[in-house]
Amino acid sequence: MKDSSEEDFDRIDLKILRALQSEGRLTNADLAERVNVSPATCHRRTQRLFEEGHITGVRAEVAPAAVGLGALVMVGVVLDRSTPESFAAFEGAVLEMKEVLDCNLVAGDFDYLLKIRVRDMADFNKLHGQKLIALPGVRQTRTFFVMKEVKENARLPF
Amino acid sequence: MKDSSEEDFDRIDLKILRALQSEGRLTNADLAERVNVSPATCHRRTQRLFEEGHITGVRAEVAPAAVGLGALVMVGVVLDRSTPESFAAFEGAVLEMKEVLDCNLVAGDFDYLLKIRVRDMADFNKLHGQKLIALPGVRQTRTFFVMKEVKENARLPF
DNA sequence: ATCCTCCTCGGAAGAATCTTTCATTTTCTA
DNA sequence: TAGAAAATGAAAGATTCTTCCGAGGAGGAT
Fold first, then answer.
1. Domain map of chain B by residue range?
2. Alpha carbon of B7 to those of A61, A66, B13, B158: distances in Å?
3. Cβ–Cβ contact B134 with A under 8 A
4. Under a CB-based contact definition with an 8 Å cutoff, are residues B35 and B23 in contact?
5. CA–CA distance, B17 with A21 (Å, rounded to integer)
6. Please, are residues B95 and A55 in contact by the beta-carbon 8 Å criterion?
7. Tell me, which fold does domain B64-145 have in CATH?
8. Cβ of A3 under 8 Å from any chain B Cβ?
9. Total beta-carbon pairs less than 8 A apart between chain A and chain B
10. Which residue in B54, B64, B27 sits closest to B42, CA to CA?
11. What is the pLDDT of residue A86?
12. Which class would CATH give B11-51?
C-alpha cells in the first residue's frame, strides 16, 4: 500500500502540527525553537506537512460580529426522497450558499445538519423563506437558533 | 460611545481580512501587493486588526484523519432542569472535554448541540457511555453520526 | 561484521522580508 | 479656511527565509 502517508508522525511532526494549529502565523525561526530543531529541518518538515496534505490550510479567524454576521443558526433538514440523485442535488446547491458554513450528511432524525451564519434573525428568516426551503428536495427543516456560543471551533485534541 | 470599534472597515481592511481568512500565512509583502498598498501600511493595518480583536487568531487546519480523528458526531443534549446553575455546570464541564469541538446553547428541541471528534464509532460509544451521559444535569442525548462531511468550516461570507 | 544506500540532520549564506522611523499628504473638525 | 490629527509611502537596519552542502545514522544485503 503506497498511500504515501500510511505512516504516523514522529514527535517533531506532532509538535509542529500542534504549534501551528494554535498559532498559524508562527515564524519558522520561532517554530524551530519551540520544537527544538534547526530552522532548516523545521522548514523542511513543515513544508512536507503542507505538501502531503496533513495541513489543509491556514486561516485567520475573523470575529463574526465584526463583519456583520452576529447570528448563528443550526438547521436540520429532511429530504423528500432518499435517492443518490436527491442527495447530490441538495449538496450541490448547498455548496453554492455562502451562508452555510457546515453541512453534514447524518444518520438520525435528519438527513442533513447545517450551520449557518447571518446578520440577525430577520436575515435568517429571509434566507429560510427564500433559499433554504427552496433547496432541491427539501421536505422539512427544523431551526435551532443559537443563543450562546459556549465553544466554537476548538482545536483538534491530539 | 467609545467602543473603540464601533466603526466599520474600509475597503483595505476588508481586503486584508478576506485574504488572511483564506491564506493565513500570507507574507506581509504579498498581502500588501494583493491589497494595493505599501508594505508599511499593510503591516500597520494588519497589526491593528489583530490588536483590536477583529482577527481572533490564525490557525492551521490539520486533517482530522491524519491525527486519528476520523469520526465526526453531532449530539443534541437535553438537561434535567432549566436553571442558570444547571446550564453553568454543564457548560463548565463541556469546556473541559477536548473531544467537544463546538457547543452551542440553542432554542428548540434541545438545550445544547455538540460537535465531537473521535477516532471511530467504538471510541464515541465509550465517550458517550462514560462521559457524555455523566455530564452534570444531562437528561437525554440524541446522536447524529456524520456519514459525509459535505462542507466543513467554510469561510465567513463578507 | 562490513559495506553500501538512503534518508535526515544542522551550518552557512545570499535573497527576501519584517518592522520601525520620518517627512509628507490626506482627512476631519471647529 | 485654518489647524490638528491621522494615515500614507519610501528607506534602511535587523531579522528571517530558503536552499545548498557535507556529515552523521539507520537499515539491508553480502
1. 11-51, 64-145
2. 19, 10, 12, 16
3. no
4. no
5. 19
6. no
7. Alpha-Beta Plaits (3.30.70)
8. no
9. 217
10. B27
11. 96
12. mainly alpha
